[in-house]
């Protein structure tokens, strides 16, 4: 779905006197964003890509950051306060850009993920410096975008930048190491270097398990890519077994979430007193949601092409998608997958009991949002 950007740009009246560069490619700029008036572009195409990738979300946030502070004879305390506010704004911008970029990557919108990743990189450098471990994440995002766009040489460069930063910093989060290996794995998988790819995905799963636990959905990405390599290698049995484990992983997690959501919906105060984590644990953030959609729909497509279908696995997959869309509060899609799951469950009975329980919860949650 292509949304028309609500952007306006006007040509710079006097570009020769203004030393401004394009936000995306750093070439001399000839147009600027009329909404913030602090962001410049070489042409309208680069403005369009930036707008759809990230600028729409941060346009107004950039104004205070890019408007020069006039000379004010404030006290040292006041200057310090202003600086703190600027850093807070920059950090907020890093969060917004980074989340937007991650989400676009899972949605396969690599062209638009690049401006989001570049913005994250720029502000991360400003806040943390050019050798900080925080830079690994935006470099990995840029690498992944380039893999998606088949710019493999550029991807390799970005990934090695990330690797260099990770090696130089002794305090590096296992989750970042896991992401680095996932990206290298994806690069090798694209080049059909299956052995190298599998080695990196195994490392990804190892570090991810250390960071989040073996059964955590955050570890599922590594298993997913590994399964895809086995599938490419025509090792279908191994691939389907991994896809099955992945579906179970998501099914269990989402089942717990739906269960907790139903408790919350029925608002049993005593349960809330016991478990304070209820609210946090029954929501997926935007990035996790996008990852789940990608993984579960890929698996669904494989099952639908399988003749004859593996009814047990197909039912579980449809059921998991129904729960996913319930948690994401997309009740139209949830209903679609629920009715598909119910009809395949009639042919294969193992999930029927849980499905009927879910159906009643689903109806209650759907009604509550009306
Ligand atoms: Zn440009
Ligand atoms: Zn703007």
Q: Largest sheet, if any?
A: 3 strands, antiparallel
Distance separating the two termini: 26 Å
Structural class: mainly alpha
Number of helices: 15
Number of strands: 3
Shape: globular
Strand order of the largest sheet: 1-2-3
Give the low-confidence spans: 1-5, 270-279
Bound molecules: zinc ion
Rg is 24 Å
Average the pLDDT over all residues and give the rounded result: 88
Proportion of beta-strand residues: under 5%
Helix content: over 70%
H and E order: EEEHHHHHHHHHHHHHHH
Tell me what you see in this structure.
Residues 22-59 form the MYND-type domain. The two termini are 26 Å apart. The longest helix has 31 residues, at 76-106. The chain is mostly helical. α2 (76-106) runs antiparallel to α3 (110-128) and α2 packs parallel to α12 (286-305). It has a three-stranded antiparallel β-sheet with strand order 1-2-3, covered by helices on one side. The chain is built from 15 helices and three strands. The protein has helices spanning 44-66, 76-106, 110-128, 136-148, 152-168, 174-190, 194-212, 220-232, 236-265, 269-274, 278-281, 286-305, 311-327, 331-347, 352-369; strands at residues 9-11, 31-33, 40-41. The chain binds zinc ion (2 copies).
């Amino acid at each position: 779905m292509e949304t028309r950007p609500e952007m306006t740009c006007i040509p710079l009246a006097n570009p020769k006197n203004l030393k401004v560069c394009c936000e995306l490619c750093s070439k001399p700029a000839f147009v600027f964003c009329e909404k913030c008036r602090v962001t410049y572009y070489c042409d309208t195409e680069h403005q369009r890509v930036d707008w759809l990738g990230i600028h729409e979300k941060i346009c107004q946030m950039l104004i205070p950051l890019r408007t020069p502070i006039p000379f004010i004879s404030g006290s040292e305390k006041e200057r310090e306060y202003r600086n703190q506010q600027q850093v807070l704004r920059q950090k907020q911008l890093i969060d917004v850009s980074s989340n937007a970029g991650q989400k676009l990557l899972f949605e396969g919108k690599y062209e638009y993920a690049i401006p989001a990743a570049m913005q994250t990189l720029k502000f991360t450098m400003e806040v943390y410096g050019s050798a900080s471990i925080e830079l690994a994440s935006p470099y990995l995002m840029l690498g992944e975008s380039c893999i998606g766009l088949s710019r493999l040489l550029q991807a390799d460069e970005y990934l090695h930048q990330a690797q260099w930063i990770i090696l130089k910093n002794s305090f590096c989060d296992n989750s970042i190491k896991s992401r680095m290996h996932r990206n290298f794995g994806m690069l090798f998988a694209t080049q059909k270097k299956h052995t190298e790819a599998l080695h990196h995905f195994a490392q990804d799963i190892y570090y991810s398990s250390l960071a989040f636990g073996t059964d955590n959905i955050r570890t599922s990405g590594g298993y997913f890519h590994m399964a895809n390599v086995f599938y490419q290698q025509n090792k279908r049995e191994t691939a389907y077994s991994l896809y099955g484990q992945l579906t179970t992983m998501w099914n269990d997690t989402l089942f717990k979430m739906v269960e907790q959501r139903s408790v919350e919906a029925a608002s049993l105060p005593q349960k809330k007193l016991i478990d304070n984590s209820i609210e946090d644990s029954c929501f997926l953030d935007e990035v996790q949601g996008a990852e789940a959609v990608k993984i579960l729909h890929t698996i669904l497509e494989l099952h639908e092409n399988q003749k004859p279908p593996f009814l047990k696995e197909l039912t579980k997959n449809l059921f998991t998608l129904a729960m996913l869309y319930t948690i994401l509060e997309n009740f139209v899609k949830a209903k679609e997958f629920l009715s598909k799951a119910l009809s395949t469950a009639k042919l294969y009975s193992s999930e029927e009991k849980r499905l009927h329980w879910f159906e009643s919860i689903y109806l209650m949650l759907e009604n509550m949002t009306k």
